[in-house]
Amino acid sequence: xxxxxxxxxxxEADTVFVTDLPLSTVLLARxxxxxxxxxxxxxxxxxxxxxxxxxxxxxxxxxxxxxxHAMQTVSACHKLNVAALGNQVPxxxxxxxxxxxxxxxxxxxxxxxxxxxxxxxxxLESRAxxxxxxxxxxxAD
Amino acid sequence: xxxxxxxxxxxEADTVFVTDLPLSTVLLARxxxxxxxxxxxxxxxxxxxxxxxxxxxxxxxxxxxxxxHAMQTVSACHKLNVAALGNQVPxxxxxxxxxxxxxxxxxxxxxxxxxxxxxxxxxLESRAxxxxxxxxxxxAD
Lengths: 141, 141
What we know:
The structure is a homodimer.
Chain A: H1 9-14, E1 15-20, E2 24-29, E3 36-41, H2 54-75, E4 79-84, E5 94-99, H3 123-140
Antiparallel strand pairs in A: 1-2, 2-3, 3-5, 4-5
Helix pairs in contact in A: 2-3
């Protein structure tokens, strides 16, 4: 029987829920500096991508693809950054970030460059709605 | 007919060849700060992971898995970092980096933190040999 992991408190604090895909829960980071999705596979005890069962690793790539297309649709970003780092939060999570040539960290990676900026009231939920719609559309294709 | 991309000059300059997997050429970064493989899928014109054909995206995950296991075998790293960023070098490439809790960038990401350190004479080739052996072993499993 599959055991589902509880969301790490740091991921819980830093994000809002967007949607559940078959393998992963999709979250939106509370940081208006960048459009930034985080995919958290739900099987318990995952730390590295290679901890995923082979069919889950395939599905991970499918869900990265879905969220990447949704990111392009919603944000019209110039570049996608996809990464599984996890040096600070051990629960396996995959970042799908929309990058812009005038964003605060360009062309470097985003982590630790500038403090998070809160979204304006209502904007976080509205962004999460846009991503949910785009991800559902991609999943249906 | 499949056209193969030439390796971007920056990747050529910063790495040595390790081996060819079915989809990707595997390179080792000339930076002794971190054990650092770079996978470059050979189809021409790839920029984002989502540019890969669906069967190539599956194969990309297989090859990330092979190189991740090889990284653990060769380096005994504490954590894997896997990332497709490409903000500076547009040719699609995937980093598979072995991280240590006492490496110069821990716990942040490695890019742009400290200048690259050259390997000692012979050590780069010896490391590339170790990775080639481990990757071939993983591919055979």
